[in-house]
Design goal:
By secondary structure, the chain is of the alpha/beta class. Helix content is 55%, strand content 9%. The protein is built from 21 helices and 8 strands. Strands 5-6-7-4-8 form a 5-stranded parallel β-sheet, with helices on both faces. It has a 3-stranded mixed β-sheet with strand order 1-2-3, with helices on one face.
């Protein structure tokens, strides 16, 4: 391509982008290529199905760019893959370019679950920031938070949000190259391609995506898989350098991904890290109210509230309980689900639930108060002397770090404070301990006493 041709084509793209919505531009214009401008005719390569759109919407763009660059009226003709001719006289760079046109990227399957969307994700205080960040990423992939790192325990909605992001992007731009995959399956694909000596295929598949969604990235943190980490590191760099969006989920923060290379951990923290905690009672009621629509039973409000009070760790327990209830109700041929039916249906599930060590927030407050020589009453009160404020913020930090309580629940235990106050305290202490080694040691000492 000559210099004038390049300037002309850049101007065409600039004008098109200014006149079209981003999604329309990405679908109809982004993949088009200028082959040549000869005898005042621009030859443009594109998918044949897009010719009519160009004829109706972009002729004026080509005319404007033509007069600006060539001071002449430029006509246009379109070339399609089946009749594209590679001219022998083109320079080697142009030859390589035409080779790329003839051999487009192979089709990929997104592996997204179509039932997951933002519309059917129940939002509460415990996941509000994760939802907001996910929507922002879906609206402007590669520009807002890259990467987006979502962490939290199992069954809290991380996979739902990953799929919702991918489905939203494809709805806006059906041609986007989107891939959802678990880290475990990424490892499996890596091993298979190594064994078959087809690593170039793996690289082509993952390094030319527009959106990569990796679930359970903690599975990558294994010493025996350094080759996989190397490949993922290179894939991450290739996508990030080209402003392609990456979203990761994990059951822990990047800093707690043991055996993961430091250079990967650093990159995971380049964008935004958000946490999802277990849903509070009100959110669990909302989740159940939404989920019971899938069942042909009547759930009175007292039954829903009773069930919401039985499981507070994650959404999967609630979904499993509904299946248990459905089985019992179908067996007994009943339509209305009473509290007694729920109690009978979930009895085995409740007995099978592993007993986990629960750390009361009161215990955290007591140990923090003892360490800083302040009372629990002072920690919960509004007094703002320096020593009390520090103790209060450290206690809030540890309450979020060491328990599964939601932000509103923690705030309630600290004198009825708002969830935003807890989040502010958590972020402040987190930032300080990254720079203040003495405070980090103090907090570790308190942790050891609580455990």
């Amino acid at each position: 391509m000559t210099e004038n041709e390049q300037i002309f084509w850049n101007r065409v793209l600039e004008l098109a982008q200014s006149q079209l919505k981003q999604a329309t531009y990405e679908f109809f214009v982004h993949d088009a290529r200028l082959l040549k401008v000869e005898n005042h005719v621009a030859t443009i390569y594109l998918d044949q199905m897009k010719e009519l759109f160009w004829e109706k919407n972009l002729k004026d763009v080509i005319l404007t760019a033509g007069f600006e660059i060539y001071n002449a009226q430029i006509a246009v003709e379109y070339a399609f893959e089946e009749d594209l001719i590679v001219e022998q006289s083109q320079n080697s760079g142009n030859q390589n370019y035409n080779q790329q046109v003839i051999n487009p990227l192979p089709a990929i399957t997104s592996d997204l679950n179509p039932k997951y969307s933002f519309e059917n994700f129940i939002q509460g205080d415990e996941n509000r920031w994760a939802v907001a960040a996910s929507i922002a990423v879906a609206n402007t992939p590669g520009t807002t938070y890259n990467p987006l790192f979502i962490w939290g325990g199992p069954g809290l909605g991380k996979t739902h949000l990953l799929n919702a992001i991918g489905n939203s992007v494809l709805l806006e731009n059906p041609k986007a190259r989107v891939k959802y995959i678990t880290a475990e399956n990424f490892i499996n694909e890596f091993v298979i391609h190594i064994r078959l000596d087809t690593m170039d295929e793996l690289k082509e598949k993952f390094r030319n995506l527009d959106l990569l969604l990796i679930d359970d990235i903690q599975s990558l943190a294994k010493k025996t898989l350094s080759g996989t980490q190397e490949e993922f590191f290179n894939t991450f760099n290739a996508l990030h350098n080209n402003n392609k969006q990456i979203v990761l989920t994990s059951d822990r923060t990047p800093d707690h991904l043991n055996d993961l290379e430091d250079r990967l951990v650093t990159r995971f923290k380049w964008g935004l890290t958000v946490n999802i905690t277990p849903p509070d009672f009100e959110t669990r009621v909302a989740i159940l109210t939404n989920k019971i629509q899938e069942y042909n039973f009547i759930f009175p409000q007292d039954t829903i509230e009773y069930l919401a009070g039985q499981f507070d760790s994650n959404v999967r327990d609630l979904e499993g309980a509904l299946k248990d209830i459905s089985l019992v109700a179908n067996f007994k041929q009943i339509d209305t689900i009473t509290v007694d039916i729920v109690a009978e249906a979930i009895r085995a599930r409740k007995q099978d639930t592993p007993k986990m060590t629960v750390i009361p927030i009161e215990e955290i407050q007591a140990q923090v108060g003892k360490f800083y020589d302040v009372t629990v009453k002072e920690i919960k009160a509004t007094k703002r002397t320096q020593d009390i404020v520090l103790a209060r913020q450290v206690a809030m930090f540890l309450a979020r770090e060491m328990t599964d309580n939601s932000l509103p629940k923690i705030g309630k235990e600290f004198g009825g404070r708002d969830h935003s106050t807890v989040l502010h305290a958590y972020n402040k202490i987190k930032n300080i301990i990254g720079q203040d080694e003495s405070l980090r040691i103090e907090i570790e000492t308190i942790k050891n006493k609580i455990k």
